[in-house]
């Protein structure tokens, strides 16, 4: 968390720290869905942890983020908060928990703040979500926006497609980012956006941008932890860099354990109570 927190500070990162870092310090965000994983990221100095609705297809076995419920986010976000000491924990508002309007959004966000203890929430949408963002900010709940590819709208997009290509689409994306800022969000995720456009948006905003598949010009970057750690099988998306091969390690460990049990070498004498 070097550069995000003032020298010598022993506290959680806040949205004020994130705002102050714009133009001065690039920072990383990772997702997490349990206390143990979150604790490791906290120890590594990751300043912001997102309890994303990506828990759907990365933790809960759903095919997408759409089925994720607010109850599920609240339970897993509380675990992440308990597992961390320094990181700012952001809880995602899942599909169906804010689309009805400001009142529903406020009710949902309050649950994550009160029950899970998150320091902020994130929701998808630009101009269409401005009223919800404004209501949460007015109630004292920090909000991170999310524009570009918004996975909760994957059915409307017809798949996971890059957003903002072409003059009309680019103009709308800029308008969406500005709407998020004007509504009071402290930051905005730019997902699956051409790098040149993401850089232009970053330069035009006073709030930090967090890129995922949006090139190096953003103020920060976020990855789903299972992607970054190589936990998923199959070929990763273009924007993903794998920093480990956790899935292969776990498969090897499980096979070795099963073999030790089968041949009687586990438990050995040192594993037996006397």
TrEMBL record:
Keywords: Cytoplasm, Magnesium, Metal-binding, Pantothenate biosynthesis, Transferase. Homodecamer; pentamer of dimers. The gene is panB_1. 3-methyl-2-oxobutanoate binds at residues 53-54, 92, 122. It catalyses: (6R)-5,10-methylene-5,6,7,8-tetrahydrofolate + 3-methyl-2-oxobutanoate + H2O = 2-dehydropantoate + (6S)-5,6,7,8-tetrahydrofolate. Catalyzes the reversible reaction in which hydroxymethyl group from 5,10-methylenetetrahydrofolate is transferred onto alpha-ketoisovalerate to form ketopantoate. InterPro entries: Pantoate_hydroxy_MeTrfase, Pyrv/PenolPyrv_kinase-like_dom, Pyrv_kinase-like_dom_sf. Belongs to the PanB family. Binds 1 Mg(2+) ion per subunit. It comes from Actinomadura meridiana. Its EC number is 2.1.2.11. It is found in: Cytoplasm. Its cofactor is Mg(2+). The active site is at residue 191. This is 3-methyl-2-oxobutanoate hydroxymethyltransferase. Pathway: Cofactor biosynthesis; (R)-pantothenate biosynthesis; (R)-pantoate from 3-methyl-2-oxobutanoate: step 1/2. It holds the Pfam family Pantoate_transf. The keyword Transcription does not apply. Mg(2+) binds at residues 53, 92, 124. Its main location: cytoplasm. It comes from the Bacteria.
């Amino acid at each position: 968390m070097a550069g995000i927190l003032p020298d010598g500070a022993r506290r959680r990162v806040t949205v004020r720290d994130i705002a102050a870092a714009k133009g001065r310090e690039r920072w990383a965000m990772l997702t997490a869905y349990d206390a143990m994983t979150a604790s490791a990221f906290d120890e590594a100095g990751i300043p912001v942890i997102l309890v994303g609705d990506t828990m759907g297809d990365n933790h809960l076995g759903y095919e997408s983020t759409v089925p994720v419920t607010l109850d599920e986010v609240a339970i897993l976000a509380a675990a992440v908060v308990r597992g961390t000491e320094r990181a700012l924990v952001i809880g995602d508002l899942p599909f169906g928990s804010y689309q009805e309007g400001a009142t529903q959004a406020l009710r949902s966000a309050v649950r994550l703040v009160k029950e899970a203890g998150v320091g902020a929430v994130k929701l998808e949408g630009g101009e269409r979500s401005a009223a919800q963002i404004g209501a949460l900010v007015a109630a004292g709940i920090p909000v991170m926006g999310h524009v570009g590819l918004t996975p909760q709208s994957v059915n409307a997009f017809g798949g996971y497609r890059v957003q903002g290509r072409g003059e009309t689409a680019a103009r709308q994306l800029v308008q969406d980012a500005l709407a998020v800022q004007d509504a009071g969000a402290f930051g905005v995720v730019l997902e699956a956006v051409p790098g040149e456009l993401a850089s232009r948006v970053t330069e035009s905003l006073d709030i930090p941008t967090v890129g995922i598949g949006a090139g190096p010009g953003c103020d920060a970057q976020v990855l789903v932890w299972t992607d970054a750690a190589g936990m998923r099988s199959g070929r990763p998306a273009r924007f993903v860099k794998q920093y480990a091969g956790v899935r292969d390690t776990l498969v090897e460990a499980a096979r070795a354990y099963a073999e030790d049990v089968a041949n009687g070498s586990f438990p050995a004498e040192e594993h037996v109570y006397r």
